[in-house]
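Allow me, if you will, to draw on your knowledge of protein folds for a short while. I have a record of one protein: its chain in single-letter code and its fold written as discrete structure tokens. Could you please explain, in whatever detail you think fit, how the structure tokens follow from the sequence? The record follows directly beneath this note:
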Amino acid sequence: MLYNKNKIALVDCNSFYVSCERLFNPSINKKPVVVLSSNDGCVISRSTEAKILGIKMGEPYFKVKKIVKENDVKIFSTNFALYGDISRRVMKTLKLFSPQMEIYSIDEAFLDLSSVKNKNLLEHIHKIRKTVLQWTGIPTSIGIGTTKTLSKAANYIAKKEKSGVIDLVNSNKIDELLSKIKINDVWGVGRQLTKFYIKNGINTACDLKNMHNGWIKKNTSVFGSRTAMELRGITCISLEPHEEKRKNCCVSRSFGKKVTKLEELKESIATHCLNAAEKIRNDNQTVKKITVFIRTSPFHMGKNYYSNSKDIDLPIRTNDSITLVKQALMALESIYKKGYQYQKTGIIFSSLEDIDIYNKNLFSKINNEEKRIKLMKAIDYTNIKYGRNALSVAQAGFKKKWNIKRQYSSRIDTACFDLLPAVKT
């Protein structure tokens, strides 16, 4: 832990999913908008106007239908293809302002701006915000502090400011600003810790910052102490510009309607397997163990609950879609039971390693491995160019009646020309 004068900025996209939908639909600007989760279940993104109406994050859609109808709230189903592409554009733009950048989530990134002089800091932050808006169309809020926790706190305040920017590096009113942040809104403070802090008179970020460190160490974990130290400007959480490769890869979805037929379950497992295989190929990884799982709804009253999974330890590491789909479907057949209404299926790839670790073996030539590698590259290239599932396997099906419910989808995909909005002349 070092006392320092680091300058860490947190750039957070405002109501990111809503902002992405507004990019291609200007008519919904300044109107209440919400984006729903998979199967149109819960609210996962809200515009400022929707927040004012009292729509809460994570609230089930059926509970807010009345508010939606009475206030003409615009509803959208999730469109992760669009959000992922816009996120990549935002992150690529931010990278120009700092090579030391940690992508924290799809809509957040930490930037190391220590090389920027204090007197130029505010101007530099405004330039970042203006450039991201101009180049991608996404509005952002930026908070900057000497630690990641302080930059998080600054960003929390910045979201409520018209300027969208808060600088805690040059501020002499840090305690005043931190006193505006409730303890449950402090980064790293969970629900149980919040209850404990409030019980002991710690109600704001400022209270935690000024609490004696000995008391915090004695009564909380090392993480509680770390958060308090960071609020005092002492670096305990370092920037991680190099993203570690995943150790596991899980792809799963709940169905848009209950499924009983084995053929439809096979389609979903094959589709999930293809998506997971594409992901690990993009990371130049191979898989040794796959897990297939299925389950019915635990909340379906009057129906028997059934859940099962099957692990398969592959004899040879691979990222070949055809091989993986074949193994996954064999696993599914061994755990499938008739007479149940299934709600969800999924696949997990574990024991992932870099492709370089895998060397050719005795069976490489017999399995036509070089040809299979070229085939996978051709499939990935085609799907990138013409849209996901342009090339697939027959087992994944075509109609996909089991697929997630997306009643309010904007059907915009910036990676597919057929789904881009047309401009009339």
